[in-house]
Amino acid sequence: MPTGVIAEDKWDQLRALHAEGKGRNVIAREMGIAAACISRTAEYLGLTFDRSRIRAATAARVADLAERRSLLAVKFTDVAEDSLDRIYQPTTVYAFGGSTNTYEEHTFGEAPAAERRALVSAAGTATDRSLKLAPAEVSSNLDGAKSMLANLGTILTSYSRDMDEQDAVGDAEPADEA
């Protein structure tokens, strides 16, 4: 008997729980034995567990996470757009300073240079994060180029045939004598 399997006197209980269709983790909890030990024993006894539900749950989890990443990417794109839009909106700049720690503010028609840099930087960072979460679709447009070339070839072939037909008609007509 290999190491790491449950005692032989519990094999019948394991077989019965397995026959009821219970999963490895449920059996482990009911028997009070580590799941890894249940797995090793089941393998030794030739028992297998239906993993289709696990695969389905994993696929659902992966899809849920992809959707959440997509939603985050949209939020980052919104932040980037908002940051760039704010460059051209009235901006109030303020500061505390002086020996009396006075508050000063000034409103500009659009963001001053320092704020522009900060807003562009924020937009760039948000865009980078968005693209990491949901990469842009890369299109080589190879199919479009092939289609265009095929169309061009068809047009040139048709034109060439028309010219050949016109030449043939021109050669067949007798010359008008004046």
Blueprint of the fold:
Blueprint: H1 11-19, H2 24-31, H3 35-45, H4 52-86, E1 91-97, E2 102-108, H5 113-133, H6 142-172
Antiparallel strand pairs: 1-2
Q: Secondary-structure element sequence? A: HHHHEEHH
Strand content: 5-15%
Which strands sit side by side, in order, in the main sheet? 1-2
Would you tell me the structural class of the helices and strands?
A: mainly alpha
Q: Radius of gyration from the CA trace?
A: 37 Å
**SS element count, helices:** 6
Shape: flat
Mean pLDDT over all positions: 87
Our measurement of the CA-to-CA distance between the termini, rounded to an integer number of angstroms, reads 116 Å
State the total count of DSSP E strands.
Answer: 2
- Biggest sheet, in brief? 2 strands, antiparallel
Which blocks of ≥5 consecutive residues have pLDDT under 50? none
Helix percentage range: 55-70%
Give structural notes:
With 178 residues, the protein is mainly α. 65% of the residues lie in helices and 8% in strands. It contains six helices and two strands, in the order H-H-H-H-E-E-H-H. Strands 1-2 form a two-stranded antiparallel sheet. A hairpin with a 4-residue loop joins strand 1 (91-97) and strand 2. The longest helix is centred in the middle third of the chain and has 35 residues, at 52-86. It is flat. The protein starts with 10 loop residues before the first helix and ends in a 6-residue tail after the last helix. The relative contact order is 0.07.
